[in-house]
Amino acid sequence: MTSSSSSNASPAGALDSFDPRSGSVVERALFNHRLWVLLLCLVATLFLGFQSTRIELNASFEKMIPTHHPYIANYLEHQKELTGLGNALRIAVVNKQGDIYDADYLKTLQELSDKIYLLPGVDRAFMKSLWTPATRWVAVTEDGLDGGPVIPDDYDASADSLAALKRNVQLSNEIGQLVAFDQTSSIIYVPLLEKTADGQPLNYATLSDQLESLRSQYQSDSIDIRITGFAKKVGDLIAGLKQILLFFAVAILITTAVLFWYTRCVRSTVLVVLCSLVAVVWQLGLLPLLGYELDPYSVLVPFLVFAIGMSHGAQKMNGIMQDIGRGMHRVVAARFTFRRLFLAGLTALLCDAVGFAVLMIIDIQVIQDLAVIASLGVAVLIFTNLILLPVLLSYVGVSASAAQFSLKGEQAEQAGLRRHGFWRFLDLFTQRRWAALCIALSLALAALGFVVSLQLNIGDLDAGAPELRADSRYNQDDAFMTRSYGASSDLFAVMIKTPSGACSRYDILSKVDALDWQLRALPGVDSTNSLALLNRRMLVGLSEGSPKWYELQNNQAMLNMITAGAPRGLYNEDCSLLTLYAYLTDHKAQTLTRLVDHVEQFAAANNTDEVQFKLAAGNAGIEAATNIVVKQANREMLFWVYGAVILLCLITFRSWRATVCAVIPLMLTSILCEALMVWLNIGVKVATLPVIALGVGIGIDYALYVMSIMLGHLRQGVSLSESYYRALVSTGKVVMLTGVTLAIGVATWMFSPIKFQADMGVLLAFMFVWNMVGALVLLPALAYFLLPASRVSKGQAERKPWAKSSYPLNLPPRAQEAVEPARS
């Protein structure tokens, strides 16, 4: 900065020559009552900080499923009759030194089964193991059908009792279900309730800890314990997500270090970080007040709020620092920066809020809760980073050396030195040749990305629990279950509604039998079970084991007799609901889609007034419904978020051309992000769906800050090249700073033991960087063709002589007019 420029700016920038009645109503209300603003923010921080200590981390099974989808509605309608088909644990107790017909093994199994039976939240009536009375065997004898509990009533651990147990297991049809094929392990099947006996929601973290305690108690050199199920998966997620505090701390350190490197000012760096942390405290404090809790998906939101806050805070701090460097008093600099950037910041935060809010259209409560929690966080940023930060900086200011350092490039230019090489490179994209080349390359990338994105799958693409690492304890346990029991834990159930007392009718069972046979032939279906299949097997048993009688007999008396002794899991109490089970090899999206399509076609052809085939129950059925909801919401969500962003940009810029320049880079990033998901084998699911919307909402921040400054200069008659340069030195370099810094911060998530957190880190880092590149490269290239000098108000330059002056053109007209009298 030259001495003449400093002397000219100082009088108008001095506090005693500044009119406190100038500015908008909001500005006057805030800056003319600064002390009250600080006191109110302090009280809010103390109160909400105390409330934040009450925040809980938990999950709910029903919150993670689309309860209004027809499939889930069918399941919930018959939930009491289908207990165990939704949220259940499978605990395998393994004898590492022999088979299950061992007295010590059976004693351990009994003790463990009894302790699990008493755990809070267990649906005890439907719990099942070798020791439960409901586990029975059936055989055909000379006297007719015989049967009983698998563990003999007179079991005494003797050799004879163990031999009887072995015989009973062979007759129980539980091999592959409760007993492993190699008979070295058996399952304790534990269905869970949504609430415990005291009416409180089941705490999955506590339940997981209790299970781990039992595992450590009973696991030994001879016994191994394997546990799978939704509750254990969520428990492991919660345990792993507690490490997010470490990643949060790393992100704070990285952003603080980079911000200090950029500013060389301790006080302003500390204030930006402090205000962003205050936003997180406010957000966490509001959650228990409003009845919300964090879950494995929304636990990452506080970091996103911190990241967004750092981005906006750095912009405000940079503007104040530059104005102070030009000789303004810190209060005047804070007010001018507030005028210059408040609208752009508010619009950007509204776009962020829209990116979160559109998630409400997804009929899955865990995502809707995430939308509310994130929207709260964005709302508090308006107060902490757009208002509190400028007010704080108006008190403490910045160091003189840092203020001068912020104008280093500007001072060098005014001294006749060349602009920084990087600025000269970016300026190339305001020229026809480079602009055309950039747009052509972007079109090619968009076309390639779109072709690749067509292969994007909905749902999980990996076996086991894709939310966790492949080598996690849970996925190792799941792989063991699949190997030992011939099928994964993925169960798909079709409900067949019949008239009361008619579930054993031949015409109904024949339809169930036909569907049973068809499903067995589908790829991905390992086995099935139904009342029709039981009738076939029983008829063979009643016919001296002759396979010639493996048929569904058209003999109603015979069907009624077999049905009377059938397990209640195959039909309900009043014989009005049959259940057809399909045990799947995995829960991949392709497997579920193929199965759902086939059952839907069968139902359409066979449903009558009396018989309806309804989808779907079981964990795989619920996941199939979730995939359908996610697929429908994916494009609908993008439509709404882009529509809202475009509308807000039109309001802010009052120019459709400027709006196109800002939105096109976002669209390119969205396309490339979907292509990246294909390349990384990541499907669109509950965990990744929010990232796509958030990338649009957060990404528009960069374009708004660059375009708002650039468009203001263009309307003053300044050339595109000069306008773009002024945007770069004021807000553009902070866009680069925050884009790279935040990308590094979220990239640390790749080391998380939680797979979906690592996936979110990769995708968010990619979107942060590409949105930044789009705002700095593609935006000016588009502006060359859409916003040439002939389409802006050149006449304003003639009416406002300061527009051509040497004074840095980064103030809005009102601020410039406040400075201009001193210049004249």
UniProtKB/TrEMBL annotation:
Annotated region (Disordered), positions in chain: 796-824
Membrane-crossing segments per the record: 31-50, 244-263, 270-291, 297-320, 341-364, 370-398, 434-456, 637-653, 660-680, 692-714, 734-751, 763-787
Localisation: Cell membrane
Keywords: Cell membrane, Membrane, Transmembrane, Transmembrane helix
InterPro entries: MMPL_dom, Mycobact_MmpL, SSD
Pfam families, per the entry: MMPL
Membrane topology: Multi-pass membrane protein
Major subcellular site: membrane
Domain SSD, first and last residues per copy: 273-395
PROSITE patterns named in the record: SSD
GO annotation, cellular component aspect: plasma membrane
Protein name (database record): RND family transporter
Species: Aquipseudomonas ullengensis
